[in-house]
Design a protein that fits this description.
It is built from ten helices and no strands. It starts with a helix and ends with a helix. Helices cover 76% and strands 0% of the residues. The relative contact order is 0.12. The protein is mainly α and 280 residues long. The protein is flat, with a radius of gyration of 21 Å. It has two domains: 119 residues, Four Helix Bundle (Hemerythrin (Met), subunit A) (Up-down Bundle); 123 residues, Four Helix Bundle (Hemerythrin (Met), subunit A) (Up-down Bundle).
Length: 280
């Protein structure tokens, strides 16, 4: 079957991300006690999932659905381990010891055992690359256009949506849940752009760094909010982490107010609309 340019590109990119996922899966299965191995596995899963979402209209839906269901289960088990690691790190940072730490260490061991069992099973499975649809649904992608033409039309619209969400999320009265949702959107946006970095030059690297800094600040807040839920019975520990949470939120507000301005939006839209000229 002859593939249009964007469908062919979609299959290639998902194949590449599945390869990285398999590598990180083997590493995490071998070293389930290593927090960085668990983190890298989660990131590789997010990249596969975002590639599937980005190119979903172009791909055979049956294997995509099956793949995402399996990845979701692994992601849940990874999150249980990762949350314990984050909470233990934060409690050490604020100088908290005692029952809360003991409970988290026990929960971490139990979560790691469940994850390890699942990873041993996953290692034996084949992660097939989804093929393109026999009759792709165009939706955002124009099958008759080049990849560059598609990008110049689609990506500026994505950054406008991202900026609108960012302005709402960093408002003075935004809840931590809203910040959490925006954090997930920032990840999805970043991983979408990564799919096309070969079509852009240094400005893509600058944009990726901005998004990473934003993710780090949002992630620092989410780490505190998640930890507070996990240690809720311990009032002293909650108070200590809560103080850190407020400090981190103030840092985010200062940083984000300088990013979500009209001049920055125009900068993003300008270079995202010019993939061919910026290509390395």
């Amino acid at each position: 079957m002859k593939r249009d340019p964007i469908s062919k590109y979609a299959v290639q990119e998902i194949k590449l991300r599945l390869k990285h996922f398999s590598k990180n899966l083997r590493r995490a299965a071998k070293h389930p006690e290593d927090p960085e191995a668990i983190h890298d596995l989660r990131v590789s899963i997010r990249r596969v999932v975002q590639a599937c979402k980005t190119f979903g209209a172009l791909l055979d839906p049956a294997p995509i659905k099956k793949l995402r269901r399996r990845l979701h289960k692994v992601m849940e088990l990874c999150a249980a381990v990762r949350n314990c690691d984050i909470a233990l790190t934060l409690l050490d940072q604020v100088g908290t010891t005692g029952a809360a730490v003991s409970r988290l260490k026990k929960a971490r061991v139990e979560a790691a055992e469940k994850l390890h069992r699942r990873l041993r099973v996953e290692r034996k499975k084949r992660h097939a690359v989804p093929d393109s649809r026999a009759h792709p649904k165009e939706r955002d992608w124009n099958l008759d256009q080049s990849i560059e033409a598609n990008l110049s039309r689609v990506l500026p619209g994505l950054v406008e949506e991202f900026f609108a969400s960012g302005k709402a999320a960093i408002s003075a009265h935004a809840s931590y849940q809203k910040l959490h949702q925006f954090r997930l959107q920032a990840k999805r946006f970043r991983y979408t752009l990564e799919l096309f970095e070969r079509f852009y030059g240094s400005e893509m690297a600058s944009g990726a760094e901005i998004l990473k800094e934003l993710q780090d600040r949002l992630g620092a807040i989410n780490d505190c909010a998640t930890t507070i839920v996990m240690i809720e019975p311990d009032r002293r520990a909650v108070a200590a982490v809560g103080k850190l949470l407020r400090q981190r939120n103030a840092v985010l507000q200062t940083y984000a107010r300088g990013q979500f301005v009209a001049q920055k939006l125009e900068w993003w839209k300008r270079w995202l609309a010019q993939p061919a000229r910026n290509a390395a």
